[in-house]
Structure formats: structure tokens, C-alpha cells
Sequence to fold (168 residues):
Amino acid sequence: MDLETALIRDLYNQQKPKSYAQVSDLFEVNFKKISRLIPLLPIISHHSIAKQTGEKDLHLFVEEKTPYTTTFILTHQIDSPAGSISRPDIKFKVYFDANLLEVISVCNETTLNTNHPFLAKCSDMDIQWELNTFIERWLDYCLSKYTPGQPLLAKSNSPSQGISWQTL
Fold:
């Protein structure tokens, strides 16, 4: 084994596996953050866009809606010479009855680092931790950029104070 592989293995082995309780706590934290970003999330049933002056539009797509859960995609749509690109394209399920948010995928990937040399040794909890830590940090970013005023859900394109979620 070469030195680089040995260092990566040692770094990997320093981390303790995540427990269900730790991952569940992160689901709860992310639910609280998405609820602050989009207070009317339970009633959204169509593609919505948050518009904030000086920021890229933040898109929320509804994939599947049931009485107690909804699967969403939260992303920016970036224009490129090849067409529109959705990034970071986070698919997540919200359990409204349990106040939990669980990430399903990021950019259609169920792991963030598919090239990790020790991926096979990662538990499901470690992978869930990685995905949900990613959305936690991205929600922090979104909260810092998209909530200077009172969030609201609007059906018109009229500008408003602060963030405006518009249903399409």
C-alpha cells in the first residue's frame, strides 16, 4: 500500500460511524431550517421560485405529494452554452407529521464522493450524514441570502419586500 492510500485510510478510520440518533437529529435541524426558508412549505404543490434582488432565483419543484410527506427538489437553474443546468439539485423528502427532512440525492447522486477509496466501508448512516450535512450547510447559505425580509408565498410577479416565493 502506498503512502497516500495509507494516509487516506488512516484519516477515514479516525471518524467514528454516525448513529441513527445523530442522523435523526440532523433531519430535525434541516426541517427547522427549510421551514424558516419556506414557511408555507406544507401548502406548496407546484413549482415555486424565490426571487431576491442580486441573487440567482431559487427553484423549488414538487416531485410527489402525499397527505404527510412531500418530495421536493431545491436548486438554482444556471444558464450555460449547453443549456440550463440545475445545481446543486438537492432532492429531499419532508415528513410533515414527524417534522423531519431527509435528503434523497444531490445532483442525482446518492453519495457525494463516489470516488472515495473506502466507500464500501461506509455505513448507510454515514452516507445519510454526508448528504444531510450538505443540505444543512446549503440551507444556511440560502437563509443568509434569501431571507432579509418576511418570507411569503405570492402568485404574482410583483416585487415585494425581501424574499418572495412565487408559484408557477
User: Anything to note?
Assistant: The chain has a mean pLDDT of 77.
